[in-house]
Amino acid sequence: MVFETNLETAAESAETLPSAEEALDEHDEIPLTELFSDEFLTEYTDFDTFDGMVAASPSPATSADELELVPGDEWNAFVAETTDFEDEREMLFAVRDYWVASQLGL
Q: Which of 1, 26, 78, 86 is deepest in the core (most CB within 10 A)?
């Protein structure tokens, strides 16, 4: 994986961390465009925004709200061609770690 982090080690060295409740309520939903921040996309993909990435995919989708219109196999191939990741799974784990680290200020 391109994005590597050890959240546990980083958290141990941090002086203060927010509680889980301060970072995210259990009923909160994270919009895809927040999870896939412009910073993440610029650093690890050929795109500046997640809406732009989805719109450029080989599908009729024009924004992140229409991601379900992109067939899974086509999306995996598109991710492999246009990002630093081998497939959607690898990209999802990387963006998860990136988002958590940013929420914790790490």
A: 78
Give the helix ranges, DSSP H, for the chain: 7-13, 20-23, 32-35, 38-44, 50-56, 72-82, 88-103
105 φ/ψ angles, rounded to the nearest 5 degrees: 70, 30
CB count in 10 Å sphere of residue 34: 11
Q: Contact at 8 Å (CB) between 75 and 57?
A: yes
For residue 49, the model assigns a pLDDT of 97
Alpha-carbon span 79 to 13, nearest angstrom: 33
pTM of full prediction above 0.90: no
Residue from 103, 47, 102 nearest 78 by CA: 47
- In angstroms, the CA 41 to CA 56 distance is 13
Average pLDDT, stretch 1-6? 56
How far apart are alpha carbons 30 and 14 in whole angstroms? Answer: 24
